[in-house]
Design a protein that fits this description.
Blueprint (H helix, E strand, L loop, with lengths): L9 H22 L1 H9 L21 H6 L14 E4 L9 E4 L1 H17 L7 E4 L8 H13 L2 E4 L5 H11 L3 E4 L1 H13 L11 E4 L13 H7 L5 E8 L4 E4 L7 E2 L5 E6 L11 E8 L10 E10 L11 E2 L4 E2 L4 E3 L2 E3 L1 H8 L7 E8 L5 E8 L4 H15 L5 E4 L2 H8 L10 E3 H6 L1
Parallel strand pairs: 3-4, 3-5, 5-6, 6-7, 17-20, 18-19
Antiparallel strand pairs: 1-2, 7-8, 9-13, 10-11, 11-12, 12-13, 12-14, 15-16, 17-18
Helix pairs in contact: 4-5, 6-7, 7-8
Amino acid sequence: MIPEIELKSIEEIKQFQDKKLQELLVYLSEKSAFYQKLFAKNNIPFNSIKTHKDLTKIPTTTKEDLQQYNDDFICVNKTEIIDYVTTSGTTGKPVFFGLTDKDLDRLAYNEAISFACSNLTKKDTIQLMTTMDRRFMAGLAYFLGARKLGAGIIRVGAGIPELQWDSIQKFQPTYLVTVPSFLLKLIAYAEKNNIDINKSSIKGAICIGEPLKNQDFTPNILSKKITEKWHINLYSTYASTEMNTAFAECEYQVGGHHHPELIIVEILDENNQPVANNEEGELVITTLGVEAMPLLRFKTGDIVKAHYDSCKCGRNTLRLGPVIGRKKQMIKYKGTTIYPPAMYNLLNDFSEIKSYIIEIDKNEIGTDKITLKLYAPENEVSLLHKLKDHFRAKLRVLPIIEFVTKEEINSLKFPKMSRKPMLFIDKRKQKNS
């Protein structure tokens, strides 16, 4: 189920996308109040943008634009919106997105080809361990995609290891869709209750929300901890509400494949100019085929590296490596630039740590301060020494380390209205707002 365009040459893909870009610009010129104003303000005729190379003439769109002018992005009558979602608000105020019937069809197509990219077929049964409520797009996308693929679906939702294992044993699913760290809780529950995980029906997991790979595509610590005990295939996927599109790994697991019929990708530097090949930059996207709220040159805030060589699976589309970090979560600490995922990877190496929060604040001289709040019920003294040595060796910096109670960590990790656990708290934003 590989879309034909993904097997075309790079030049053919670019020509295809240029045509789709032209169609989008006509649509925006007729329907989008936001982009009509943006083009007029900057004296840019819509018809002056001919190819993807002309995109740099257009100012980028930011999350702040979406927050401030949310309704101006709507290109349809509100009676045509049949589903309402919001972003997670990880780095700011949540933003509303509306979807039409056509947009839901596009979402289903995206997820079906993404599942197929990771080798799932209509013969599989997928256990969805993500919420479909609380205005969350991802859970709905997985449901619609599995349905379009023709696969079986078990809607269990997030959490509750006992219920997850009950469903696995009762319905025999072949794949799970889950946050990867939750697989460790499933393993722990199975060990405690004498369940042989490697005799279960599970062949693999589609993993969301947390990185599984290092930048060279080798398994990171979290991935190793899972597969050392549970011999299943782990597939990374990257997506967001704003892009309405996913980047999914194929069987060779060397980055998430781009779907050129759904999205145009740019990787930009601090000056909004394209980075050189093999350099990291901010992912900027232009959505194709979105009816209600299409976006043009939208800055995702995620720092990534793209890979352009052809994949062994036959696709010639670019591939995105693991997200290096969110631009707004970048930490400058004692001359070193750090993103939270690098610290997650280190902390996941310690089985003594049952839960953690990374808290960033400003110190008395105005520079960044990192505090690790850890719930580790045993051997705090020896763990403290090992952590210090580990951070010095791997990241060359030493954060403040605090041991807290299970209740305190849970109150920070699961705030009201949050749809997913918080691992990173940025108090710098609170002081600047």
